[in-house]
Specification:
By secondary structure, this protein is of the alpha+beta class. The chain contains three helices and 14 strands. The protein starts with 6 loop residues before the first strand and ends with a helix.
């Protein structure tokens, strides 16, 4: 499914807020659109250590547990550390990610975007401040997103009609890419044959 977009928005965020109070953190969200959360463990000096599992598995200590929320469509943004290109994928994306563009494969935490890293830095700072002062601190996501720099990734003119939403035929991961042909970030399957078949069917309908 093709859609005409002049800009690839990195964080049309799901909103909500995190509150640090009484030694704990609480996430609240009452917005009427999809929202997915995952958590990561971050050291007090901001180094991302591991992906958490909401208390079902141990995380490195000492660390701050940071909650990462999806955008309004239940997708997360990713930035390839090698080719620097941006894409989105839904919450089914596994811990290891394959770049849809250059096929670079690494831990998903290596694909954090610049804005996500800025958010993590603020989250850890607020958590540490609460730990030492005991005062209640809240992070409003809508306000935070409005403060982020370069929240929109500009496309070159030839890319304006090439932002594509697709679903992997093999593992059903959904992703949003810039371009037409890509690899699945989960299993690495290419969409070449599927896309080629669609183009042939389109030609047949026109004929």
């Amino acid at each position: 499914m093709m859609k005409e977009l002049k800009e690839f928005e990195e964080i049309p965020h799901c909103g909500g807020k995190v509150t640090f109070s009484n030694g704990q953190s609480k996430y609240e969200n009452s917005n009427p659109f999809p929202m997915v959360l995952y958590e990561i463990a971050v050291s007090f000096n901001g180094i991302v250590l591991a992906r958490g599992n909401f208390g079902r598995s141990p995380i490195p200590e000492p660390s701050v547990t940071v909650m990462i929320a999806s955008d309004k469509e239940g997708f997360f943004g990713y930035s390839c550390p090698r080719c620097k290109k941006y894409f989105r994928a839904n919450h089914r994306t596994p811990e290891t990610i394959i770049c849809p563009y250059c096929l670079y494969m690494d831990n998903a935490l290596s694909f954090l975007t610049k804005n996500q890293k800025q958010y993590i830095e603020l989250y850890v700072k607020s958590s540490v401040e609460h730990y030492y002062t005991g005062k209640e601190i809240s992070i409003d996501f809508d306000d935070l997103v409005s403060q982020l720099e370069n929240n929109l990734i500009k496309l070159h003119s030839y890319e304006q009609r090439q932002q594509m939403f697709m679903e992997c035929d093999s593992c059903k991961i959904k992703l949003d890419i810039i371009g037409v042909y890509a690899s699945c970030p989960g299993c690495g399957s290419r969409n070449n044959f599927t896309q080629f078949s669609q183009e042939i069917n389109n030609i047949r309908e026109k004929v």
